[in-house]
């Protein structure tokens, strides 16, 4: 018996050692997937019973369970769950009885970040309306397009957002009617939902060209997004910092929805301020913050001080965090757990980096692939299309090879498309991908999955360029150039050169405060760190980088401007191999490039 016991112990120890060696993330994957599957089963029950507990229903439950708990802290003022519930009830009564809005109506909302954004949103939802969030930065033609394409019949404008083009329209002031309105709830059947497919929101995604597209957000998508903080281990004790615009999905679906799901508190900011970020976090006891794009880089660019690690922040949730900024953030502000999430507003696939490995956007394994069908396929950069085999089907890439990410459309992962445009919806779909009749959502993102199941973002299809017969990923070049000591921020893109095939690399650069551009040092770094085809041939010095409202770098205008010194007012430099330097790009040098005298 003793021998058997010793043999069992030895076998168990061997199995554990083998597991740690071959499957080091097994238990963490298992526990995380258990949470995801458990939540998925709950959603399936909603589908099976035709009775959906929406995010709004969850808010009403929380308002009854914890009425006096702070829900939103804004500009130093606390708004409890009960406060927001009662004010949204007043608004719902005004919408239903005075404005005569009906269940199923679509209402557009043009408001900045403030508690009343939430009250209006919830009030409309209580009245049974779907809501379209309008970007407060868009003007005239785009604004009218956004209003009409989602079928909106009414526009609600925040007091600070009344634009000149609406001043001649018939405007009803809600504030005059609120005081007289009842704070008792409108009939619950107005908001009752029987299908997860029911649209609840329209959120606009901006392309590089053309008008914004209205992504249809179903109850299923809003419920999935609301589970993000919970899946990463968030609790009702957490205080969430939301500095992102509420008209985008990150702040509204993940931020506000996630706060409601937990029964937590959120600190809402009118807009992001790098200089006030950490003082806000210390003052409000923030434990989770949302980030996107270059937000964390802005924090790292702030002057250092002795209070950098004096905070309670334990987790950051967002996307677009570059590896160099990730490391610098940890080194300076402590080991805050950074939880990268991959997914687009309209997409049907989500990756979550629950392990926290730097430089990866998510993690996958056999069980995840069983639940959510996705594939990385070969992409032909010359044709700007997925590569096909002799039968006309896509070809899967090998592990470690970059490919276009496609996600299968199914009942578990549906694609709801865009409002008002079947053609735009159809353009995002690929049919007959691996077999006749199958349908996949085309993310437009080039990704790579390594041998351990970690997934890394490489580039957008339109951002990757080809030079000297090789594909160049802008993210990899930007990460390399970001290591140069005088560079604070860099944006890499490809520009057309007359008479040359492909696009040549160009980098817009901002130097650190007090530093000056050193062309020779940059040349030496590029020669040492980058292959010949990936070295940027042109440099554009800028004082300020153009960003989207979600802190993502703008490339389109930079690409359009090119490298012509007569058109670009910023200082331009060109790589000169003979001088082993980046030298000023003058009109004469530009003409030499066009004539071929200056070889690239």
TrEMBL record:
Catalysed transformations (reactions): a very long-chain fatty acid + ATP + CoA = a very long-chain fatty acyl-CoA + AMP + diphosphate; tetracosanoate + ATP + CoA = tetracosanoyl-CoA + AMP + diphosphate; a long-chain fatty acid + ATP + CoA = a long-chain fatty acyl-CoA + AMP + diphosphate
Family annotation (InterPro entries): AMP-bd_C (IPR025110), AMP-bd_C_sf (IPR045851), AMP-binding_CS (IPR020845), AMP-dep_synth/lig_dom (IPR000873), ANL_N_sf (IPR042099)
Keyword list, A-Z: Cell membrane, Fatty acid metabolism, Ligase, Lipid metabolism, Lipid transport, Membrane, Nucleotide-binding, Transmembrane, Transmembrane helix, Transport
Signal peptide start and end residues: none
GO cellular component, one term: plasma membrane
Biological processes, Gene Ontology terms: long-chain fatty acid import into cell
Places the protein is found: Cell membrane
Membrane topology reported for the UniProt record: Multi-pass membrane protein
Family of this protein: Belongs to the ATP-dependent AMP-binding enzyme family.
Stated name of the protein: long-chain-fatty-acid--CoA ligase
């Amino acid at each position: 018996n003793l021998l058997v016991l010793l043999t069992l112990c030895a076998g168990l120890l061997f199995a554990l050692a083998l597991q740690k060696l071959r499957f080091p993330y097994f238990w963490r994957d298992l526990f995380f997937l258990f949470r995801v599957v458990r939540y998925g089963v709950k959603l399936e029950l909603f589908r099976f019973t035709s009775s959906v507990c929406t995010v709004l229903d969850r808010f009403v439950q929380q308002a009854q369970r914890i009425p006096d708990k702070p829900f939103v802290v804004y500009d130093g003022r606390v708004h409890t769950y009960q406060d927001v519930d009662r004010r949204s009830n007043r608004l719902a009564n005004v919408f239903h009885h005075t404005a005569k809005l009906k269940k199923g109506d679509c209402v557009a909302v043009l408001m900045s970040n403030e508690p009343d954004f939430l009250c209006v949103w919830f009030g409309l939802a209580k009245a049974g309306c779907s809501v379209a969030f309008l970007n407060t930065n868009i003007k005239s033609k785009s604004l009218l397009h956004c209003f009409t394409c989602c079928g909106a019949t009414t526009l609600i404008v925040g007091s600070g957002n009344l634009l000149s083009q609406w001043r001649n329209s018939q405007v009803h002031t809600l504030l005059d009617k609120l005081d007289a309105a009842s704070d008792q709830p409108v009939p619950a059947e107005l908001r009752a939902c029987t299908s997860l497919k029911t649209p609840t929101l329209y959120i606009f995604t901006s392309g590089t060209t053309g008008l914004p597209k209205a992504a249809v957000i179903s109850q299923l998508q809003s419920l999935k997004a609301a589970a993000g903080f919970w899946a990463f281990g968030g609790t009702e004790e957490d205080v969430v910092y939301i500095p992102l615009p509420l008209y985008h999905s990150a702040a509204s679906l993940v931020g506000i929805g996630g706060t409601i799901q937990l029964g937590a508190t959120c600190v809402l900011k009118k807009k992001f301020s790098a200089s006030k970020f950490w003082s806000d976090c210390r003052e409000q006891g923030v434990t989770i913050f949302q980030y996107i794009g270059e937000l964390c880089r802005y924090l790292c660019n702030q002057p250092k001080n002795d209070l950098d690690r004096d905070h309670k922040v334990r987790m950051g949730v967002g996307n677009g965090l570059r590896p160099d900024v990730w490391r610098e953030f940890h080194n300076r502000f402590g080991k805050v757990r950074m939880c990268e999430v991959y997914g687009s507003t309209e997409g049907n696939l989500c990756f979550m980096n629950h392990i926290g490995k730097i430089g990866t956007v998510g993690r996958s394994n056999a069980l995840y692939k069983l639940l959510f069908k996705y594939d990385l396929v070969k992409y032909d950069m010359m044709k700007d299309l997925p590569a096909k085999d002799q039968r006309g089907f896509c070809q899967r890439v090998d592990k470690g090879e970059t490919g276009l990410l496609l996600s299968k459309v199914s009942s578990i992962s549906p694609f709801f498309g865009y409002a008002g445009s079947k053609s735009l919806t159809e353009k995002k779909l690929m049919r007959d991908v691996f077999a006749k009749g199958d349908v996949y959502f085309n993310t437009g993102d080039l990704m790579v999955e390594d041998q351990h199941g970690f997934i890394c973002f490489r580039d957008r299809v339109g951002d990757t360029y080809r030079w000297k017969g090789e594909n160049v990923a802008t993210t990899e070049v930007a990460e390399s150039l970001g290591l140069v000591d005088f560079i604070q921020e860099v944006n890499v893109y490809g520009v057309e050169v007359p008479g040359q095939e492909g696009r040549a690399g160009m980098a817009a650069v901002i130097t650190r405060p007090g530093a000056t551009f050193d062309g020779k040092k940059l040349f030496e770094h590029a020669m040492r760190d980058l292959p010949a085809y990936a070295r940027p041939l042109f440099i554009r010095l800028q004082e300020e980088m153009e960003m989207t409202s979600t802190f993502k770098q703008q490339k389109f205008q930079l690409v359009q401007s090119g490298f012509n010194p007569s058109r670009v007012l910023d200082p331009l430099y060109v790589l000169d191999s003979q001088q082993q330097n980046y030298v000023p790009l003058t009109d004469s040098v530009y003409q030499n490039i066009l004539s071929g005298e200056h070889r690239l």
